[in-house]
Amino acid sequence: MPAPRVLRTEILLVLGVSLGQSAIYALVTITARLTADRPLSQQTATMNASVSARPWLDLTYQLLGIFFALVPVLLAIHLLNRDSGDARARLGLDTRRPWWDVAWGAALAAGIGLPGIGLFWAAAALGVNASLVPAALPDLWWTVPVLILAAAQNAILEEVIIVGYLMTRLRQLGWRIGAVIATSCLLRGTYHLYQGLGAFVGNVVMGVVLSLFFLRTRRVMPLIIAHTLLDVVAFVGYALLPREWFNWL
């Protein structure tokens, strides 16, 4: 295992090119939103936005964005491989227990998703969240496949980096379990702050559940499946269902 100083530098670099960077931008965004001349509830946070008016160019940009967002995941696995052998097996990213992973992933998605809808609704009613647009892509043949890929990309990036990699490295540094969970969950909440304060709280709570599950099972695959299912429902549902169904967002 690398020396503690090397590990601390490595963690900062991995986070600096991935979710740590997102957290900094989210802090700046929420500051801008809270100091704007409009209430937070009257502002809009858009995900999966179109990049070009030309469909094939837009598709190219979307796919490139998804691919390069996953490079930090490959980096984290590579770094873990260098000092601990098969990092995929260690993090539970392998396919040894596919049906177990799918079953638990679906159960976690249901257990988190239903209360999450209620929390999001409450946050919107209290005016502590921006109006969320989960998908703003044009209605084209590739829209749904790209949204599904984007959901999977979000899940892989967040669960591997913020749960599997970060929690493993912090434990190697000798951090207490409580501090490890708190750091992971607070970081998860912070990079969702661009959506509002309600999103911060909701994602911290989600993070506690997923972190405890990982510590108990040492498998990140069910977390990826759960997160993917939640985002697919949000992204694809918003893209396909009538807009009036989402007036509460």
What does the average pLDDT come to?
93
Report the biggest beta sheet as strand number plus sense, adding barrel if it closes: 2 strands, parallel
H/E order of the elements? HHEHHHHEHHHH
* Count of DSSP strands: 2
Distance between the termini: 46 Å
Number of domains: 1
Describe the structure.
The protein is 71% helix and 2% strand. By secondary structure, it is mainly alpha-helical. It has one domain (4-246). Strands 1-2 form a two-stranded parallel sheet. The longest helix is centred in the middle third of the chain and has 30 residues, at 143-172.
SSE topology:
Layout (H helix, E strand, L loop, with lengths): L3 H13 L2 H16 L9 E3 L8 H15 L1 H14 L2 H5 L6 H29 L4 E3 L9 H30 L4 H14 L6 H21 L3 H20 L9
Parallel strand pairs: 1-2
Helix pairs in contact: 1-2, 1-7, 2-8, 3-7, 4-7, 6-9, 6-10, 7-8, 7-10, 8-9
Identify the notable features of this structure and list them briefly:
mainly alpha; 249 residues; two-stranded parallel sheet; single chain; globular; 71% helix
Characterize this entry briefly:
By secondary structure, the chain is mainly α. Helix content is 71%, strand content 2%. Strands 1-2 form a two-stranded parallel sheet.
